[in-house]
Amino acid sequence: MPHNNSVFYAMTQLIDWDAFDAAVDRHGTVQPRGFTYKSHLLTLLYAQFAGAHSLREIVAGLNSHAARLYHLGARPACRSSLADANRDRPAAVYADLLSAMIRRAHRGLRRTLDGATYLIDSTSLMLSARSASWAHFSAQTCGVKTHVIYDADADCPIYAAVSTANVNDITAAKAMPVVPGATYVFDLGYYDYAWWALLVAAQCRIVTRLKCNTRLTVSEIRPVEPDGPILSDQIGTLSARLAANRRNPMQAKMREVKVRIETGKVLRIVTNDLDAPAQEIADLYKRRWAIELFFRWIKQTLKITRFLGTSENAIRIQIAVALIAFLLLRMAQKLQKAIESPLAFARLVKANLMHLRRLDQLDRPPPGIAPVAGQGTLMLQ
After folding, report:
1. I want to staple 348 with a disulfide (CB 3.0 to 4.6 A). Which of 54, 259, 342, 362 is the partner?
2. What are the φ/ψ torsions at residue 68 (nearest 5 degrees)?
3. CB 150 within 8 A of CB 119
């Protein structure tokens, strides 16, 4: 019978270990002799893939598979060592690895950058009151935000950053990298004319919404199909002046497409693309749903809503590792053709994590077991 490594081993072979070692050299403290940075990373990845929710559950699970963890070049830890590592190991190590993994995954999942469409949004993660010293938002709420640029065509984030919940989305957006010539789709949380003008200056196409009280001075009205979802299509300019007589930095001509969505609500979609069909603009804005599905996926499938620590460092590490786990799942799924559903693949990885299985055979009975109609499985002698 041919030898197979564990599913966990196969997943971790996709990690850019050179980038991780370089990140440890840049940011890490003295490499501990027992519970190393590699052991720490593999422990947290195990927790993500296995759906383990507590330090006790993680340690017990890894101790039961200590021999197979040994072949990964790591070792299980006690609860105190894991808790100390989450609190004290620099989060920048795991953030740098995430950046390297995003670059690697994006190269593999997207064939061309021509016509790239990027979705920008953030999601909030609630924290317990024990994080109030650094993540205080209101009298009753503590939390953080994860800000993401998402490539829907590649089903892959290309940028991620973490902030406290009281940081405005547009403040985080201004620190994001801009890809010249790309299309950026975002919602009302990024309503900033100066930032829009920066994107337009970089030859980017923007698609977003206008607030109900924003006036557009119309210079051209285009015909639309009667009885269709597109209610109007017109070109004009925004107000030349803002409050306190400030000059509006967004001086370019803009196009407003009013569209009625399935719920009956009317949206004022605005773009600097004056040539594309109105329906294409409406469809681009509709693609924002893909990033909402991504946030739902990492929260529900990777269980990112429960944290293993309360310090800012521990939270940042866990979010970075959860996103690394997502990228590994997407890259591993791409290597096989048998399982098309990302959710089904993630569930099978969880069920077979420490088993000796090939990634392209997770949906088949293990070797040596044959199915018997109506009777489950039968061991072969």
Report:
1. 362
2. -75, -30
3. yes
